[in-house]
Amino acid sequence: MKILHASAEYFPYIKMGGLADMLASLTKEQAKTEKVYVALPLIGKLGKTIQFTGKVFPALPPKDAPIDSVVASVLKASRFLEAEEGGVKLYFFESELFQPLDSIYGHAEEHFRFAMFSYACYALSQILNVDVFHAHDWHTALSLALQKDSVNPIPSVFTIHNLAYQGDHPFWMTGFLKEEPFRLITSPFDHDGKCNYMKAGILSANQITTVSPGYRQETLSEPNGFGLSYCLRQRASDYSGILNGIDIDEWNPEKDKRTFQTYSVKNWKEGKLKNKAELFQEIGRPFLPLDVPLVGLIGRLTHQKGFPTFLQALLERRHLPHRYVVLGSGDPEMEKSFFQLSETIPDVFYFYKGYNESLAHKIEAASDFFLMPSLFEPCGLNQMYSHTYGSIPIVSRVGGLRDTVEESNLLKFKTGIVFEPNDVGSLGYALERARDLFESTDREIVVKNIMNLDWSWKKRKLEYDLIYSKAIELKI
User: Fold this and answer.
1) Structure confidence by residue, pLDDT tens digits, 249-270
2) Dist CA 306 CA 326 (whole Å)
3) Would you say residue 191 has pLDDT above 80?
4) Which own/partner contact pairs does 223-229 have at CB distance under 8 Å and 24+ positions apart?
C-alpha cells in the first residue's frame, strides 16, 4: 500500500507539538510494511539538515498548467523536493510562501499559505498515485475537499490532533478558493460566518480519526467540540479514536544518549538518582536535595495546558517537599509568572523558556513524577514517555490522559495519579498523594508496572490499517 501523509509538522524537521512526534513515529512503523510518503513545508529554519535526493515534483498537475491565475502562478513557482528519512520518503514544499519563515505557525496570511500547501499536497497525491491520502489537522484539510471533488478521488483519512485550532477565516479572505485551480464550493465550510478549514476536512474525508478514544467521545458534545460537535456527530460512524504510540527507539531509558545515564527497570533507582543529580548541576541548582520528589513539566504554556491551575496549587501546597522543573514557552504572562517563581524560590522551582529536545529527555529521566494539568488533552505523549522512564504521571482526567493513566483504590495495577481538571483542590490533593507514594514501598511496584507498559506503534498501526481499508471500501 502507498500512503501519503500531509502535515505542517514532522520530527525532527518541524516540531511545535505532539503532531510532529506522532507522525514521525507512526510513519516509521508503517514503513516496515508499506510505501510511506510525507509532504511538509520547507521553512527557512529546520531542526535538521536535509539531504535531498535530487528528484523534483510539481505543485500543480500538468493538466492545470495552462491555468492563468494568481493562485496558479504561485503554485507554478513552487515545487516538491524529495528526501528520505528512515525508509520514509519526504516531500518538502519549496515555495516563497514558506521559505522566509523561521517557525511554522503564528504568521499573517496563514489562510492563503496553508491553502496553497493543501492544493500542492492534493496534486502530489495524484502524481504519486497513492492508495490512501492521510491529512493532519486544519493546515491540510482543504486537500480533502479537493480529493472529494476530484474526477479521480483518492481514498482519504483526516486525523484531528486538536479541535481547538480550526483554521477559520472570513469569507472575504478566502474567495480565491472558488477560482482556478481550486474550484471549490465553500458554502458548506461555513461555521459562524467564517470559512472553516477544519469543517471542510470533517465533511470531505472518507474516514476521520482523532488521537484517543476519550477525546473522540469528548468532541461529540460541547464545549469540547468547539462548535463542530454537530459535524462530528453527523459523521460518527466514520469517526474513530486511536491512541497515539511513541517511538520506542527515540524514547528509551536503556539507550537514550541524551540522558546523563541510561537505566532499565532493574536499576531505575540508581539511574534516576544519577540523572537527577546531573540535571541539578546543569540547570545551576546543585544545592537542590536528591531525596525529595522532583516533578517535571514540559509543554506549551497555553490555556489548554492548565498551568494557572498548577501555579495556584503549588502556592497553596508550599509545605510539600516537591521540587519542580518546567520546560516550555507560550503565554507571556505565564512565562513572567514562571520566571518570577524561578527567581524568588530557586530552591523549589526552575523554569527554562523555550523548547530543548535534549533537556526534555533529561527531565523525563530525572523526574520522579511528571505533571500534566491539562484542561483538555486530545492524547498527550509525555505521560507515555514518563511511563517508559519510570516517572509516575500526575494527570487530569481528560481525553487521552484518562485513557492511559489509571488510579483507583480498587485497582492493584496503578499507572499514575489522576485529578479533576481545572480544580486547584483536586490537583493539590494529587500532589499530596505523590508525596505519600514517594515515601511508600508501593512506589517500586508502580514504577515497575509503568516501565513494562507497551506504548509502541505496533498495535496502533494495525488500527490505522483498518481505517485505511474502510476508506478504500467506503469512498464518499
Assistant:
1) 999 999 999 999 999 999 999 9
2) 13
3) yes
4) 224/163, 224/376, 225/163, 226/163, 226/164, 226/166, 227/191, 227/192, 228/163, 228/166, 228/191, 228/196, 228/198, 228/199, 228/202
